[in-house]
Amino acid sequence: MSLYDKIFPPRITTLPNGKSVAKQRSRAPVVILVILALSYVSVKVTGFDLSVVVRRSKEFFVIFARMVPPEWGYMSRVWKPLMDTIKMSLLGSAVGALLAVPFATLASTNIVKNKVLVAAMRLFFSLVRTLPTLVTALIATYIFGLGTLAGTIAIAVFTFAYLGKVLYEEIETVDMGAFEAMESMGATKARAFIFAILPQVAPSYFSNCLFCFEGNVRYAAILGYVGAGGIGLILNEKIGWREYPSVGIILLALFVTVFIIETISREIRRHLT
Amino acid sequence: MKDSISVMYEKRPRTWVTQAFLLVLALVLLLWSGLSIESSGSGTGGGKIALNILSGLAHPDTGLLFNFTKQGVAYLLLETVCIAFLGTVVGAVLAIPLAFLSASNLMPKPIAFIARIFIMAVRTVPTFVYGLVFVRMVAPGPFAGLLTMSLSSIGMVSKMYIEAIEDLDAGVLESLTAAGCNTLQKIRYGVLPQLMPGFASTAIYRFDMNLRDATVLGLVGAGGIGAPLIFAMNAYRWNEAGSILWGLIILVLLIEFLSTRIRVKLARG
After folding, report:
1. What is the pTM of this model?
2. For B39, which of A60, A126, A147 is closest by C-beta distance?
3. What is the value of ipTM here, to two decimals?
4. Helix axis angle, B109-124 to A244-272, nearest 10°
5. Please, what are the domains in chain B?
6. Chain B residues in contact with A142 (beta carbon < 8 A)
């Protein structure tokens, strides 16, 4: 019985057969109050002002309206950065996903019995995951210079951290029966892992890889902003020069690419699971 | 006995052709993308910079970290949390009608399809483009960041909402109809209890993500902790960047811990 139930005692209903049932009071009022209070603080801190939004909402559409019609002639110059973006995401996702497998294995409690190692691995994953991708990309451009290499590395780091967490949670919920059976038949731990655990996690692992790749294509667009290559580079440039029709064609190309990739990946993922 | 085992073994699925094909396909794709990776090369030696970054992270500027004025890390973090929080709330509310419009079990196919395309289009535009537009619409500052956050939340949030709506158990609604409930009662006792946990959990998850992505806002001057962080990094002031990063890391870990606990509670009812 929690404190809340002591302050607001549950409602007791007596049934016709003499038994009584207690129904806990709803938590909704407290939740709503907390959300309202936090919203109030946020409004104060951020200077939220609805009247400005209403008054200036036209400005929002002005820029988007200038993107129509898009500058079709610019498309010939969009292809290369667009392909760069896809290549960056593809290679980055693959490298990150492959690296995640051994580390995630070391972070799952049912495979590794050493608690210290598991905790250290998990802390490592958490720390890498909290690093904003933008910061990783910036650091990568300092270390490896401007260009797609930096973007690929930033994507690989992000994918590694995200997939690693998903994968170790996946490995922990696996059916250990097959693993134990193989071990008792005399297989080594590594062999048992490869033949008993991997087939169980493989479908969802590949599915998550594809999902990550989808997101990375979208995310790679931002990386160009810090000079890490790809479509963000020309996007940033064209916005800077206020050539909105060119921005329009870049966004359209990005939209079509993401749409195609999402459709293909959704089909594959449906087959996988 | 032994025979039946070997018979089954002979009949095992032979998928090596497809597997080999997929492997070759993956390798070709990776080679294609790997061969065109380019880099301008680092001028001053990447190793030295990496060491500087690490030493900055190891010796953060504690004066900045424990400075509680408006320039200190604490206030910047508070501003970031506020942007992410209100942005998530606004985005999560805006996503509700969109999600209902594109749920294929409630709406006719064409409307659902158009709404889905619209959501995808909103999702494709990179965050910093929205940021630039909003900075021009309202002045640079946290307010523009808030609007950016809410617009860029809509895509993913409504995608998850749609899944929750499409998973609605129609049996509950039918039994409520059979018991003589009117539409409002059906929504209150049949629809809301089914949707609320999923919706709340999605919103909390998105809050987590928004907090992480809030650094992007700094690029375009839309408030939050991103701008000071990027300035510090561009000026190679790694101690300053280190103190901001440590603050951010601790905050994100804390929020993630809380949000996971709340979401586990929501999932178990």
Report:
1. 0.84
2. A147
3. 0.81
4. 120
5. 60-268 (1.10.3720.10)
6. 42, 46, 49, 53, 233
